[in-house]
């Protein structure tokens, strides 16, 4: 993932950098006027085309005086030339912008920098104005222009000035809801695209929501080419241009074939089939290469040499994909590097631009079938694909050409978590044996958590997890069937003594069968949430229990079952009596990973039903 | 220094330690790399046998990591020079302190690999002034020793600079080829160059770690003009201190085979875990005025010396704030005026009444005072924490002719009184009148005459009072002479009833519904109050309440409207107050959610009945009405009420915590009480009350639950009580017994059976 390409996106999420915390629903400050101009200019031989930006925002204090954080990103290819600050019409305010390294989670080092300061709004009705002047030194990196800000914008005008020698396509996205108008003025050797908007809402901030490119109004800037006196400079006029640039970077990586081949042979010693070798190489990369990302300059796009990643035992997604590809190729297996935008991005390669992808993986071309390998997914098996890349378009290297395809979409069965209990009642306790299996991303989630715990604490942590932290759910005889081979289901078995699971009142006993109660509190606050909710992955949770009833006890009436079938999810639960054995089965299916806002009310009603189902107790009475 | 947060030097901790305020002349990269290479050669050539060990005992094979060797090498030297400062020539002292911390660790799992895989550090900092030029340069070296014994040196010069300023450079280094089973051998060296710096530098040898440690050592060589104070704590070995042929001070300590210690429940590291503290400074020729004497070695410095330092500061505060300032006079004047306005004479009040009146006047006029230019700060003043303001309060009371003093002690979980080494180890708390009437301002919600929990039960104390010998601090510069030190007194200890959280709940159940209706009235006492006060009390309400108490007629908004400047701003103040009030409902809901750990909806009728900010009404009381989920289960036609869940998630003692040899240090004695009335739904009877009754009671505390039926009301009383803030380890089983009882009771249920 390249950070500098995401800067325009990050700019909209400056809450994490807040100097003074502001409430999400803060309506105290708005932007009364936003004026931005982007102008393509001729530069010098090193940077033939520049993009000059002047960005002026006037913040207005509506209710009471306050201070707000102002944050602007820049990098090695995007510099801040000037910052002009006016507070309540005065330039005498003593504000000194701070310039700092931008520390992003998951990125060891990047050239991303941040300029920030706290901007006072002196009193109700007053305004403070901030003007940034910036220069982008390479149009490759000028990819998007967003309209939304952290505050509501009353009046926005955005101008893109394109000289006749520059060929640019401006693609408007998510405009209809926001009534943004566009006019075009031509003359004096340039075309000026003027966008105007009024009363734009503030950027929503909601957890587990789609990336902003799905809903925020913005312009994709597709820089095609520049005709300069020394000739034409082609940017990404077509996808072929983008691939050509990527391919040139990959070609320039000096992989050491000898060293790679030796390691590949070592990893696959004794293995004969391609699938065994691919599986072994994939797991070796997963196990041995730590994710450490350097996003400094061209390192944001060019993979590190395979032998370097192999020797250092760390790398970013590009480094892992390059190493994995080279290891497989050295074994005579047809493997390729692939560029891909994760589901966080709304784009695909129909709009060639550096913004459309943020990730690199490998693909094994298995006799026409493509098997995708993501070295950054540490605990997933061969053939399993993480939700974040499922269905996404990939750009696959094919020598001087390229192939586009889509990563297959796995259904919820890839991620089944299955729990089977065989129990009996002894007094007020329930005892028996439990088997649990996890597949796909449920397996990955379990193993990621487990391997994040010190090894001498892992068994205790696992028991705590299995028992939901409840002291009356005593686990013994823990047998780990598999927690190491990611190409098999993760699986454990254990005995339980579940104390006080049975409540006795007079002649009757009451049991609650399901203490997992999956999703029981997963309701949406429809008064606040406006954006879709994205689960990490499609899910499938199956919980089965067989309980042998004690002699002299019977069940007069079984609780009602539940069967909810909605587009995107199913909840099914039921009790059955087979002689002296009560069987309980609950199955949760999330066959889509998204719940849309128009589904929230129905979802909440269904969760209420599910909770009512969980809340039913089994009543045992004495046989008379 | 707060030992509660103290750990052994680790990569992360060292990163923080290296962020010293420093300075000097920028070094070129070339010079830096050359010095770095030379240092690497030196450190890797150390002949310490512990760094040659490669095998770890099998006992440690399951540990995430094992510290094979940890060594600190400290060298300090100084020299005098004549320098020209622009105004003339003067002597300057140049100091050089080089500290190398080297650690060799066997990393056994991915957690340990992740921990050591990245190193962040401050490469260089400098700070200059006319008389001082200081700088700190940091060098690192890292080697990875593979399982087959091959040593791979990491090129530390490959670090990336995350800050590259003229005065400050920060770097990060990724550690390559580190895998479980490897040994990482690294050091961080800090070269500190200073001019004219006589301040004390603290060094600690921490002899406990969350990883087993095979060899931990410290060696220092200090030039003869340095001085050292040192002390070993809690069974830590003694430092060996000697002099070499050049009269340098040589310090050594070694400890081997330390098992892993993991910070656990209710401990006080300063009085329970082994470590050594050293204060090192450049001494002066005579060692006067708080400076150490050159060459002086002090083992177990007397606490009296520290008390003398504290007395000096106390006296200095008096001269600067009382003699030099007018603010306290102004507060006394205002207190007189406000007392008069309410028909009283401040000076006719007894000491206690007068102290309280002055205290409240100070809080209202100086801390709660509304500042339009810092409006958000005023409104959020409840979030701020003050240091108790002991000296200020003592001097203020003195101005108000209230007898009293300042009690100086250590804190409950800090260093013992006879083991303090510096002023910051001591706690000072003002008191008035007779003993035990403490006054302190740590938050705007504090109540006069309540004993701060961190000094409860302290017996080794001193009482400071001021008897000025003149009007100036310059007369002989002996400000400590103004301070009289007398024997202190034993600080009282609050019991569980004094620190109580009491919830009175009227619960109604509607058959067919999954939520219960709750009418809640809560009383919070003593040390339990502060967080809830911060969460729920509005600044405006506190201001207005205090304003009325002090007889001020106009509300804050009226006062603003009455003022020419304030009138311009009254609307925005009103807006800000309105927004805070709007958010109060969310705060009440969140507080209930957090306390009961259940979903809370439809909250209404919320009100703070008493803010608990006055000694005449010290309890915080508030009420609300809401619906609570999570307590009702359907059982055929019957209803199961899971009453045990009302107490949220009770503390559960983990298996590894059940055996304990260390004494128990809790924050304070306390009790939590639920008085619950549940109306039996019409058409139902109740069963299972007997099973709800539980009583586990002993010297350390109790868990009790009783249930009775009175008409159509089920009356439940549930109490969890910790009798003391401290329990000897021998009482651990007693604590566990009633804690377990509470955990078991969380499964308690009552049946409402359909008739």
What does this structure look like?
The complex is a heterodimer of chains A (624) and B (755). Chain A folds into 3 domains: 4-234, Immunoglobulin-like, CATH 2.60.40; 239-406, C8orf32 fold, CATH 3.10.620; 413-622, Jelly Rolls. Chain A has 624 residues and is an alpha+beta fold. In chain A, α4 packs antiparallel against α6 and α5 crosses α6. An 8-stranded mixed sheet of chain A has the order 26-27-25-24-31-35-34-33. Chain A has a 7-stranded mixed sheet with strand order 4-8-2-1-10-13-12, with no helix packed on it. A 5-stranded antiparallel sheet of chain A has the order 21-20-19-22-23, with helices on one face. Chain A starts with 6 loop residues before the first helix and ends with a strand. Chain A has 9 helices and 37 strands. In chain A, 16% of the residues lie in helices and 42% in strands. The longest helix of chain A has 15 residues, at 274-288. Chain A is globular and about 100 Å long. In chain B, β12 and β13 (249-258) form a beta hairpin. Residues 1-27 and 473-477 of chain B have low confidence and may be disordered. With 755 residues, chain B is α+β, with helices and mostly antiparallel strands. The longest helix of chain B is centred in the C-terminal third of the chain and has 27 residues, at 570-596. In chain B, strands 1, 2, 3, 4, 5, 6, 7, 8, 10, 12 and 13 form an 11-stranded mixed sheet that branches. At the A-B interface, α9 of A face α3, β6, β7, α14 and β25 of B.
SSE arrangement:
The complex is a heterodimer of chains A (624) and B (755).
Chain A: H1 7-10, E1 29-42, E2 49-61, E3 66-74, E4 78-87, E5 98-101, E6 109-110, E7 113-121, E8 127-136, E9 144-146, E10 152-163, E11 166-173, E12 181-187, E13 190-200, E14 218-228, E15 231-234, H2 239-251, H3 257-267, H4 274-288, E16 290-291, E17 294-295, H5 306-312, E18 314-315, H6 317-330, E19 335-340, E20 359-366, E21 369-373, E22 393-398, E23 401-406, E24 416-426, E25 429-438, H7 440-451, H8 458-466, E26 473-482, E27 490-498, E28 502-505, E29 508-511, E30 533-534, E31 539-548, E32 553-555, E33 562-566, E34 569-578, E35 581-590, E36 594-595, H9 600-614, E37 618-622
Chain B: H1 11-17, H2 29-44, E1 65-84, E2 89-107, H3 110-116, E3 118-128, E4 133-145, E5 151-154, E6 160-164, E7 168-174, E8 183-195, E9 201-206, E10 213-222, E11 226-233, E12 240-243, E13 249-258, H4 269-272, E14 275-282, E15 297-299, H5 303-323, H6 327-341, H7 351-367, H8 375-379, H9 390-399, E16 404-409, E17 427-432, E18 438-439, E19 462-466, E20 483-487, E21 500-509, E22 516-524, H10 529-536, H11 539-549, H12 556-561, H13 564-567, H14 570-596, E23 600-610, E24 620-628, E25 632-635, E26 638-641, E27 664-665, E28 670-679, E29 684-687, H15 689-692, E30 694-698, E31 701-710, E32 713-722, E33 726-727, H16 732-745, E34 750-754
Parallel strand pairs in B: 1-10, 11-15, 21-28
Antiparallel strand pairs in B: 1-2, 2-8, 3-4, 3-7, 4-5, 4-8, 6-7, 9-14, 10-13, 11-14, 12-13, 16-17, 16-19, 17-18, 19-20, 21-22, 22-24, 23-24, 25-26, 26-34, 27-33, 28-32, 29-34, 30-31, 31-32
């Amino acid at each position: 993932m390249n950070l500098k390409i995401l800067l325009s996106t990050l700019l909209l999420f400056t809450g994490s950098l807040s100097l003074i915390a502001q409430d999400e629903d803060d309506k105290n400050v708005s932007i009364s006027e936003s004026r931005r101009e982007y102008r393509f200019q001729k530069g010098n031989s090193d940077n033939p085309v520049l993009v000059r930006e002047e960005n002026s925002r006037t913040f207005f204090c509506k209710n009471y005086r306050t201070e707000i954080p102002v944050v602007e990103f820049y990098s090695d290819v995007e510099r801040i030339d000037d910052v002009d600050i006016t507070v309540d019409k005065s330039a005498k305010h003593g504000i000194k912008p701070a310039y700092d390294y931008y520390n992003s989670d998951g990125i060891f080092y990047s050239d991303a920098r941040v300029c920030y300061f706290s901007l006072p709004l002196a009193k109700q009705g007053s305004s403070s104005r901030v003007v940034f002047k910036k220069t982008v030194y390479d149009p490759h990196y000028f990819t998007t222009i967003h309209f939304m800000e952290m505050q509501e914008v009353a009046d926005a005008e955005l101008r893109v000035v394109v000289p006749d020698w520059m060929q640019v396509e401006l693609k408007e996205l998510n405009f209809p809801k926001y009534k943004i108008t566009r006019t075009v003025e031509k003359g004096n050797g340039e075309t000026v695209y003027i966008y105007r908007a009024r009363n734009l809402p503030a950027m929503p901030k909601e957890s587990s929501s789609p990336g902003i490119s799905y809903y925020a109004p913005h312009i994709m800037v597709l820089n095609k080419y520049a005709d300069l006196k020394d000739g034409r400079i082609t940017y990404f006029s077509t996808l072929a241009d983008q691939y050509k640039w990527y391919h040139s970077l990959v070609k320039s990586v000096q992989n050491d074939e000898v060293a790679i081949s030796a390691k590949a042979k070592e990893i696959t010693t004794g293995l004969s089939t391609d699938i065994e070798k691919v599986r072994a190489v994939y797991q070796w990369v997963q196990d041995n290469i730590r994710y450490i990302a350097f996003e400094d300059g061209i390192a944001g796009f060019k993979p590190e040499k395979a032998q370097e990643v192999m020797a250092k035992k760390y790398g970013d997604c590009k480094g892992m994909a390059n190493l994995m590809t080279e290891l497989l190729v050295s074994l005579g297996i047809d493997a390729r590097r692939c560029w891909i935008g994760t589901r966080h991005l709304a784009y695909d390669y129909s709009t060639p631009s550096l913004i459309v992808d943020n990730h690199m993986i490998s693909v094994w071309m298995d006799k026409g079938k493509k098997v995708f390998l993501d070295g950054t997914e540490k605990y997933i098996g061969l053939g399993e694909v993480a939700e974040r890349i499922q269905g996404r378009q990939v750009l696959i290297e094919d020598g001087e050409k390229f192939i586009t395809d889509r990563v297959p979409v796995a259904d919820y069965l890839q991620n089944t978590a299955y729990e089977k209990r065989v129990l009996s009642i002894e007094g007020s306790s329930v005892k028996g044996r439990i088997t649990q299996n996890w597949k796909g991303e449920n397996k990955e989630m379990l193993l990621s958590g487990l391997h994040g715990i010190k090894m001498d604490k892992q068994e205790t942590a696992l028991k705590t997890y299995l028992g939901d932290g409840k002291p009356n759910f005593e686990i013994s005889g823990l047998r780990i069937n598999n927690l190491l081979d990611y190409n098999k289901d993760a699986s454990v078995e254990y005995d339980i003594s579940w104390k006080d699971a049975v409540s006795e009142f007079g002649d009757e006993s009451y049991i609650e069968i399901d203490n997992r109660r999956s999703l029981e509190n997963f309701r949406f606050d429809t008064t606040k949430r406006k954006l879709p909710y994205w689960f990490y992955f499609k899910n499938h949770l199956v919980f089965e229990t067989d309980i042998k009833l004690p002699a002299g006890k019977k069940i007069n009436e079984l609780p009602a079952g539940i069967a909810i079938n909605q587009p995107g999810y199913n909840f099914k639960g039921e009790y059955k009596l087979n002689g002296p054995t009560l069987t309980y089965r609950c199955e949760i299916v999330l066959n889509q990973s998204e719940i849309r806002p128009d589904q929230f009310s129905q979802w909440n009603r269904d969760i209420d039903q599910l909770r009512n189902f969980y809340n039913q107790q089994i009543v045992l009475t004495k046989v008379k | 220094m707060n030992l509660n947060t103290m750990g052994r030097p680790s990569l992360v901790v060292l990163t923080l330690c290296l962020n010293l305020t420093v300075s000097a002349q920028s070094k070129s990269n070339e010079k830096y790399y050359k010095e770095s290479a030379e240092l690497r050669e030196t450190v890797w050539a150390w002949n310490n046998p512990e760094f040659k060990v490669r095998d770890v005992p099998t006992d440690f094979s399951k540990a995430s990591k094992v510290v094979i060797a940890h060594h600190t090498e400290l060298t300090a030297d100084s020299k005098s020079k004549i320098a020209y400062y622009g105004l003339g020539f003067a002597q300057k002292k140049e100091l050089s302190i080089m500290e190398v911390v080297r650690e060799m660790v066997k990393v056994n799992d991915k957690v340990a690999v992740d921990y050591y895989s990245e190193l962040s550090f401050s490469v260089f900092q400098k700070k200059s002034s006319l008389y001082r030029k200081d700088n700190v340069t940091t060098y690192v070296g890292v080697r990875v020793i593979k399982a087959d014994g091959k040593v791979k040196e990491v090129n530390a010069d490959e670090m990336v600079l995350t800050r590259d300023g003229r005065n400050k450079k920060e770097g990060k280094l990724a550690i390559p080829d580190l895998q479980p089973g490897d040994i990482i051998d690294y050091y961080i060296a800090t070269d500190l160059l200073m001019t004219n710096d006589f301040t004390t530098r603290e060094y600690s040898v921490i002899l406990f770690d969350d990883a087993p440690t095979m060899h931990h050592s410290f060696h220092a060589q200090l030039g003869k003009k340095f001085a050292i104070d040192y002390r070993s704590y809690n069974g830590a070995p003694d430092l060996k201190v000697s002099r070499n042929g050049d009269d340098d001070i040589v310090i050594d300590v070694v400890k081997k085979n330390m098992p892993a210690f993991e910070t656990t429940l209710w401990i006080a590291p300063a009085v329970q875990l082994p470590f050594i503290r050293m204060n090192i400074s450049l001494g002066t020729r005579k060692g006067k005025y708080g400076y150490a004497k050159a060459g002086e070695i002090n083992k177990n410095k007397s606490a009296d010396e520290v008390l003398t330092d504290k007395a000096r500061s106390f006296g200095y505060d008096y001269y600067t704030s009382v003699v030099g300032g007018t603010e306290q006079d102004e507060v006394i004047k205002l207190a007189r005026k406000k007392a008069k306005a309410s028909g009283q004479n401040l000076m006719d009040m007894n000491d206690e009444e007068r102290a309280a009146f002055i205290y409240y006047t100070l809080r209202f006029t100086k801390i709660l005072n509304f500042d339009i230019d810092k409006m958000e700060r005023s409104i959020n003043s409840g979030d701020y924490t003050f240091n108790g303001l002991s000296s200020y309060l003592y001097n203020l009371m003195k101005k108000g002719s209230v007898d009293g003093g300042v009690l100086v002690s250590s804190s409950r979980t800090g260093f013992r009184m006879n083991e303090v080494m510096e002023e910051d180890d001591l706690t000072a708390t003002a008191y008035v009148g007779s003993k035990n009437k403490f006054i302190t301002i740590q938050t705007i919600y504090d109540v006069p005459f309540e004993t701060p929990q961190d000094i409860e039960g302290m017996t080794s104390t001193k009482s400071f009072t001021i008897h000025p010998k003149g009007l100036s601090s310059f007369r002989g510069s002996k400000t400590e002479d103004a301070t009289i030190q007398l024997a202190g007194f034993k600080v009282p200890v609050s019991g569980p009833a004094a620190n109580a959280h009491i919830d009175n709940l009227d619960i109604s159940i509607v058959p067919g519904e999954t939520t219960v209706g709750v009418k809640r009235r809560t009383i919070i006492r003593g040390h339990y109050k502060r967080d809830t006060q911060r969460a729920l009390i509005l600044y405006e309400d506190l201001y207005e309440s205090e304003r009325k108490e002090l007889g001020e007629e106009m509300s804050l908004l009226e006062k603003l409207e009455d003022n020419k400047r304030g009138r311009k701003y009254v609307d925005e103040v009103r807006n800000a107050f309105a927004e805070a009030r709007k958010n109060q409902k969310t705060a009440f809901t969140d507080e209930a959610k957090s306390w009961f750990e259940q979903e809370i909806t439809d909250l209404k009728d919320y009100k703070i009945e008493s803010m608990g900010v006055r000694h005449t009404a010290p309890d915080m009381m508030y009420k609300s009405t809401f619906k609570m989920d999570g307590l009702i289960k359907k059982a055929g036609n019957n209803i199961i009420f899971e009453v045990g869940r009302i107490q949220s998630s009770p503390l559960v003692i983990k298996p590894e915590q059940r055996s304990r040899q260390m004494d128990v240090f809790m924050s304070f004695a306390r009790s939590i009480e639920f008085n619950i009335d549940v109306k039996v739904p019409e058409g139902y009877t109740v069963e299972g009350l007997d099973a709800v009754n539980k009583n586990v009671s002993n010297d350390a505390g109790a868990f009790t639950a009783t249930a009775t039926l009175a008409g159509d009301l089920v009356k439940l009383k549930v109490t969890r009580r910790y009798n003391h803030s401290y329990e000897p380890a021998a009482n651990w089983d007693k604590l566990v017994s009633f804690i377990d009882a509470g955990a078991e009771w969380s499964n308690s249920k009552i049946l409402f059976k359909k008739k």
